[in-house]
TrEMBL record:
GO terms for molecular function: mRNA binding; structural constituent of ribosome. HAMAP family: Ribosomal_uL15. Keywords: Ribonucleoprotein, Ribosomal protein. The lineage of its organism: Eukaryota, Viridiplantae, Streptophyta, Embryophyta, Tracheophyta. Residues 91-105 have a biased composition (Basic residues). One of its GO terms (biological process) is translation. This is Large ribosomal subunit protein uL15/eL18 domain-containing protein. Residues 135-211 form the Large ribosomal subunit protein uL15/eL18 domain.
Amino acid sequence: MLSRRLAALSTSVIRSSIRSKPVLTLPSLQFNPLQLPHLANPHTAFSPNAFVGFQGFRAYSLLSLNDLRDNVPRKQKTRKGRGIGSGKGKTAGRGHKGQRARKGSKLGFEGGQTPLRRRMPKRGFKNPFSLTFQPVGLGKIARLINAGKIDSSELITMKTLKDTGAIGKQIQDGVRLMGRGAEHIQWPIHLEVSRVTVRAKAAVEAAGGSVRRVYYNKLGFRALLKPEWFEKKGRLLPKAARPPPKQKDKVDSIGRLPAPTKPIPFLVEGSNDLPVQSLT
């Protein structure tokens, strides 16, 4: 496109020189087909009538409407089986007869011998009982409390952390409370999470708060985080599920539904305080 426009400009210049008509009447200006004529005084407004040989802005433009086209790839897709002129006609590059010339075989088939995926040794395994917890530090919780997004006088549950943006929206098996930023906790807070590290628990209890490890299954997490889903479907909230035997020693109590707002105190054996739903 650029070469075509340059050729048109050079042809117009040659024709104007044959007719002995100067392109520009000002001797102090030099004509450049790639640029517009410059003014002697840059502060003076440009007037096309001041130049006799000026053909307008279109004569110096390298792009016009007839040069516009779609952004199509330069190399089109090969059409097979559409004649011998393309080089991919008749057998369409498959050759004559045989299994590969017909429907073919599935991916990884090597003609009957043991395929590569079975010749290679196995390595590692995937634990079906593994749990994935989202980590959240005490420093982030402290910043949200200082910003006024979390009320430290109420119980901080996993729903509170999700609604305030402390954790992501995809909670697979729960939330793990980490000790990052534990020095920013200077007031008592009460939390209910799935797991807690030793450092985080010690920091919260040192400030006069408490951390309780609660258990929720997949359905329980949905009822905890999105109770409006059950109301929209016209269903009742499910009952809290009991933890499996392998997780009984890793949790303190069963999760409560709907999301609680008041913490449950840890009871001392033999006391007559509020009853807590036991794990047994």
